[in-house]
Write a structure and sequence with these properties.
The complex is a heterodimer of chains A (110) and B (116). Chain A has 110 residues and is mostly beta strands. Chain A is built from no helices and 11 strands. In chain A, strands 2, 4, 5, 6, 9, 10 and 11 form a 7-stranded mixed β-sheet that branches. Chain B has 116 residues and is mainly beta. Chain B contains no helices and 11 strands. Chain B has strands at 4-7, 10-14, 19-25, 32-38, 45-51, 56-59, 62-67, 72-77, 86-95, 102-106, 110-115. In chain B, strands 2, 4, 5, 9, 10 and 11 form a 6-stranded mixed β-sheet that branches. In chain B, a hairpin with a 4-residue loop joins strand 7 (62-67) and strand 8 (72-77). The chains are: A mainly beta (110), B mainly beta (116).
Chain lengths: 110, 116
Amino acid sequence: EPEVTQTPSHQVTQMGQEVILRCVPISNHLYFYWYRQILGQKVEFLVSFYNNEISEKSEIFDDQFSVERPDGSNFTLKIRSTKLEDSAMYFCASSEGQQFFGPGTRLTVL
Amino acid sequence: KNQVEQSPQSLIILEGKNCTLQCNYTVSPFSNLRWYKQDTGRGPVSLTIMTFSENTKSNGRYTATLDADTKQSSLHITASQLSDSASYICVVSFLTPSFGNEKLTFGTGTRLTIIP
């Protein structure tokens, strides 16, 4: 059964550094999403992406964040100048109707 | 503001027992309601999806109900197993104008622990 994959599973970085989280959506899906879940809190929507552009974004998704689909398979989330409060699980999802979630990347900012 | 509230926050039951988790929502307009299971450190996995016209949906030992008038849903787990220990998240979906995209609003989840 096709699934969404994410790499790395765990990323540790120093405050102020840039990180890129990678996702490979399900191949025939056209809508892509990033979500964030801070430890002990609920999953929060960050951004949705369709037809090579952002279709929706939340107030969390400020200029520090950017998304890209650099080729036909990968979907990336870049976080510039990371802060301690960016530490969270980041989930990618893709859909052609129902959204399917990846296993997540745990980002730890020290 | 669109919100999804769940209760209880956490629940501990003995293996083999049944339990019911609750969800209240204020999301409008409403497309569908889903229940997800999330194991610790993993992504959410869909259990059931119901449109506003459906009252109940089953998936094995999981049965979800929906009352669109009162904006309440429940997830009933029958004959619980140790592997049911996880967070159960109620998620309400609505369509946004942008390209027919759907947007999910997540509840805070119920942390269920099954003890032998």
